[in-house]
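[retry 2/3] WSCD1 protein: previous attempt timed out, resubmitting with same input.
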Amino acid sequence: MAKAFFRLQKFLVRTQFLLLFLTAAYLMAGSLLLLQRTHLVIQQGSRGTSGNQALPDGMAGAGIADPRTLHNPSPRLLVAMEAMQEPSLDQRHGPRWLVSRNSELRQLRRRWFHRFISDQEPVQTAGFKAMKPTAEHKGTYVGCFSDDPRERTLKGAVFYDLRKMTVSHCQEACAERAYSYAGLAYGAECFCGNTLPARAARPEECNSECRGQRGSVCGGVSRLSVYSVEELRAAAQRRRNVIYRGCFRAPENLTDTFPASLIQPNLTVEMCSEFCSKKEFPLAVLRGWECYCGFPTRRFPLRQGAEGLLCGGTPNASTAAPGEYCLVYQTPVQDTRCTDRKFLTTKSKVFVALSSFPGAGNTWARHLIEHATGYYTGSYYFDGALYNKGFKGEKDHWRSRRTICVKTHESGKTEIEMFDSAILLIRNPYKSLMAEFNRKYAGHLGYATDRNWKSKEWPDFVTSYASWWASHVLDWLKYGKRLLVVHYEDLKQNLIPKLREMVEFLNVTVTEDRLLCVENNRDGNFKRSGAKQKDFEPFTQEMKDLINRYILTVDEALRGRNFTGLPREYVPR
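[retry 2/3] WSCD1 protein: success.
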């Protein structure tokens, strides 16, 4: 009996140690798996910093990495140039002589960062006490107000910054655009206007902490923390935000065309612009001592300008002589007739791509489409900086079908056939390559330095990306089911007709006034800043020979599919 009991006791001790060992092994295995996944993400991020790697289109946001910057293929993966022989003329029609980049492009997937997504909701807790506005800013706190997106009062301009929004940042942005009030909501959104919201809310309802300033309040859920920025506005240099649009023939009935007017002796541009800004109109029109405020309309479309002498002055003149012509200025106020956007109320039955090579103006085209249709565009990737600029479709899953179209740089049979139709945006490869190289070294709004252009990176970049430009177009022509080919240069020169064509392709009906609003806001926030090099030619003759062959190949393929060939300016230089 004692022997049996001893054996049982020994078995239980062994079992206890075995269970302890298995538990420890399980925990260690889980930890190793977590570390391995973390290492994979870090390793992918480090690949984007290699000097020999080129980055496709996408703005890198603060704290958010574009998936294409996390996992960029090297030039050797993009195209095996050592194996690529000079193509004969009879081989130029097909893409066989172009090494396919599809396997690399399949890896350019959308990467969601859970830490970022978890930060999207406003900071709120049960029993959260109302924060007191900080005194670090110069504006005057007015109070907490209700915010109804359908009937928004502060709608003159809208800004997002999900990482660094502060009260001062919002106030300065509104003051520079000649607005009187700045309102903050959700801890990250900034709204500007000249009229206070109608409904006040309890102070404790504004309980969202500013993303970029701990301890300060930036509104709440459907609540605005409103500040008066009159003092900042008075100190701002408003004249620098007034843009001369030109001299135009005045409409027959000025009072019917423009909603607001002012007649005053010794009227100046500053006086008229200030008056129209307070009325929240984007145009200030001067004729003699008369000042009119309004929008571009069918009566006054700002299409055909006249010589400045017919207005009795020049862009530097402070007044315009009375007569049949008038001087037109763009005020700092944003044209809000086309800024309202939303997701599709029902899932789209047609899955549409907005496809382009990086640097071809895809983001700008999205800006135009969103403002023309009133619907958000999606993206195959995720770009936090674009989301901050108001592209809310960035955060939506690209296959949700809640957006009017989806941005993509992908090519290859599988990736293309996922879409029912596509707008194929093509830009001059010389311009596209320079734009993408600028983006790689200076972001979307800057310019690469001389040192960058003269480095060995530039020749490798051209060798790799020039072939991608051609293969991207050829793949979409081959596998695309229903295509609308749009040339960037045509869209830029003939904005309204081309944009109307794109909108009709998307099966959306828009008004003429909305298209005119888009034209008035055509640039958005996508113009490069900084010193642009004049008469700069970074392409060697060898590079030109390579690119020119690709241009001829793509042009022939377009014509073979009964599309219009490439614009003349693409023709080999």
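[retry 2/3] WSCD1 protein: Residues 240-313+320-334 form one domain.
[retry 2/3] clearing retry counter.
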